[in-house]
Amino acid sequence: MNETKNDLTGRNEAEEVSKEVTDKYSLRGRVFNRIREDILSGKYAENEELKEVSIGNELGVSRTPVREALRQLELEGLVNIIPNKGAYVHGISQKDIHDIYVIRSYLEGLAARWACERITDEEIENLEENVYIANFHIGKKHYETIVELDSQFHETIYKASGSKILEHQLSTYHHYVERIRKISLGREERAKKANEEHAAILEAIKGRNGDLAEKLAHEHIISTIANLNKQGL
Amino acid sequence: MNETKNDLTGRNEAEEVSKEVTDKYSLRGRVFNRIREDILSGKYAENEELKEVSIGNELGVSRTPVREALRQLELEGLVNIIPNKGAYVHGISQKDIHDIYVIRSYLEGLAARWACERITDEEIENLEENVYIANFHIGKKHYETIVELDSQFHETIYKASGSKILEHQLSTYHHYVERIRKISLGREERAKKANEEHAAILEAIKGRNGDLAEKLAHEHIISTIANLNKQGL
DNA sequence: GCAAGTATCATTGTATACAATAATGCACAT
DNA sequence: ATGTGCATTATTGTATACAATGATACTTGC
């Protein structure tokens, strides 16, 4: 009865993984990721009502997983729920994205500072490899890979900060602006500069220079914001 | 069959309001707040399994609202959910609390800076009244009220920052450490100092001095951390 | 005695049924 | 024509039923 390509009951969808919802194979997890992506990608209009049955039908599942997903999205702030009334899209605006970058500029700095104290040798090697390989792919203009490596670089530092709280928060923000990051790193000039900045941050962390690492990581995000402005975002 | 004092189906429980879950009158909302409080207050042991039926029975509701609440708590990081297995308490540790304060020290600074640009006259009056009244209650040792006023002072600045994202994040953290804040402000010396710091931050905001406001708000939290350390927390 | 396999039970995952609430539209009075 | 009230419908809120999964304990063969 429901054999569209949207059906989530099969195992054939290569859904993007969300760090927040560990349960990537449950219906709820997939519905959550799906709606989230659809909101972040702008498929839904702002304030559009998200009806449980409609979405359920569209995705080939019952109301239950949809409800749970919507409730979680409410907590993430991507959905507004008015009791006994409905769930409404509350996507992130241009201003929200800007705010997130500014917030990140502080928190990435803090993560780099903490990483200086707690990073493991393995993680350092990880970062060195990342910078080295990224350099190769930038030359080859492999933009998909570049974005992926950029994600990994930052995620590694989040983890190395040794703070679950900070890691969790930065991961969430990082995902929020994924769409923007793809655009930003799509310019070779920016990708190159970003990787140089990564290298500098890595050196500061290796040298266990907390002040410098914080400053460089902070400036790395500020530099990203400047680039976004240049691109008219 | 279920007429214990824990029953949430009645309207007689004065549940604490959570800013995140707007639906304070739905069963889910109340179950959410209840479990959250119980985790934050330490009623549950770390890694304790939270079984849907048990909690449902305890609270006099079915599994459905409990499930939804647990899924939300997972997103908040207070509960670990292992698919097909169970939900486990993942309370916040001493280190988490410390991390939150450090993170807050940056974000409160940012909020104060942004507030300088966007705060309304009404909000300024609000803050002035807050500081003035707090001074009175500190003299009277009305600690409940002092904590409440402290919350309001900070929440007002969060709102005045004009950033939904930042407001949301700071509110969440603020609630996380509520238990600690009660202890901290329970010392007259600290309550007095905190209010003086509030007054200074307010003056900086009124003077639209972003750099100073950020610095003072940042230091206000650092000063709180120092006090916590002094109290052996 | 012990390990592997299996049956049983407990628990979660999903779907659906029923209840409560809010929205809609129509009839009717003014 | 307009607004009020009621009936109808749509939608969410909650409970429960059923399915699937994982845990447990027992049995059986060695």
Binned strand content of chain A: under 5%
Question: Which term fits the overall shape of chain A?
Answer: elongated
Low-confidence stretches of chain A: 1-5, 9-23
Classify the helix fraction of chain A into a percent range.
55-70%
The major pleated sheet of chain A works out as:
3 strands, antiparallel
User: What's the total number of strands of chain A?
Assistant: 3
On the 0 to 100 scale, the average pLDDT of chain A is 89
What is the terminal-to-terminal distance of chain A? 43 Å
What is the tally of helical segments of chain A? Answer: 10
Provide an overview of this structure.
The structure is a homodimer of 233-residue chains. Chain A has 233 residues and is mainly alpha-helical. The first copy, chain A, contains ten helices and three strands. A three-stranded antiparallel sheet of chain A has the order 1-3-2. In chain A, a hairpin with a 3-residue loop joins strand 2 (79-82) and strand 3 (86-89). In chain A, helix 4 (94-118) packs antiparallel against helix 7 (164-176) and helix 4 (94-118) packs antiparallel against helix 10 (210-230). Chain A binds chain B through residues 20-23, 25-26, 28-29, 67-68, 71-72, 74-77, 81-83, 92, 95-96, 99-100, 102-103, 106-107, 110, 163-166, 168-169, and chain B through 20-23, 25-26, 28-29, 67-68, 71-72, 74-77, 81-83, 92, 95-96, 99-100, 102-103, 106-107, 110, 163-166, 168-169. The structure holds a DNA duplex (30 and 30 nucleotides).
